[in-house]
Amino acid sequence: MHYSISTYTLFHLSIDQAIERLIHDGWKSIEVMGEGKYHGRPLLYMEQMKLKEIASLVKKNNVSLGFHLPVTGFNPASVDESTETIWAKCLSIMEVIDVNYVLLHPGTNTSIQAGIESTALFIKKMLRDLPEMIKIVIENVPYKEGSIGTSIEELISIIDHVNDDRVGIMLDTGHCYMNAQEHFLKECEKAFPYLYGLHINDNHGQHDEHLQIGEGVIPFKQFFLRLGKRDIEYVLETNTIKRAEHSKLHIEKFLTKSTRCNLRVSIESDYKYER
């Protein structure tokens, strides 16, 4: 398991200030949010010298990065000039700043099937453009008319169309709960075989609140019991650093209990077999 924190925790700061603050606080893995007029969006227009300063700071402190691509104007589900332009700018950023993965929202299309196929085609282009070591992860999104990726089945369909091991799912617990409250756990389990990581945040099922675990009503205890320990990214995407730290403590408790439970089941099974 690998803990990471999103710069969304410092959304009120510029992206360079947020990265510097998180590194100063000791975080060794950071997901850079490329959205927000005064936060991540300026990355698209940042001067090379400033990008190099960020890259130098990251390298000096042995920090790994993920890049959450912009949302506004970036629409793989129905590719247009804006999408192509933003992707070209993101590529130029990644020529200076090393990242382990890029994360995308599929976008919107009036046809779900056309949106899935368009997203898959664009991801294939992204794979050709990127160095082989960089992964692409697709995030499930809150329900909105025309949005692609509101169900795990849609994300799996995109992955099947792409058919490349470099593509996986970033399961956002908050988005999933908003879309499938009564069937939350079953919906999450569909993503488990494809998981690259988790966006971990809580809510009350109505709004994308980005709360710490326990502040909302998502059944995280049952979730982590079913998930167990996996070698994935645990991205803490709350709206403050304090909430991220609080969530991390909860996750560690849940995973410890999950391990004990699985060990007990294994011991009991072995005992019955021996008898």
Automatic annotation (TrEMBL):
Q: Which domain of life is it from?
A: Bacteria
Recorded GO molecular functions are: DNA binding; zinc ion binding
Q: Which InterPro entries match?
A: AP_endonuc_2 (IPR001719), IolE/XylAMocC-like (IPR050312), Xyl_isomerase-like_sf (IPR036237), Xyl_isomerase-like_TIM-brl (IPR013022)
Domain Xylose isomerase-like TIM barrel: from-to ranges: 26-239
Gene Ontology terms describing biological process: DNA repair
Pfam families attached to this UniProt entry: AP_endonuc_2
Name this protein carries in UniProt: Xylose isomerase-like TIM barrel domain-containing protein
Top-down, what is the taxonomic lineage of the species of origin? Bacteria, Bacillati, Bacillota, Bacilli, Bacillales
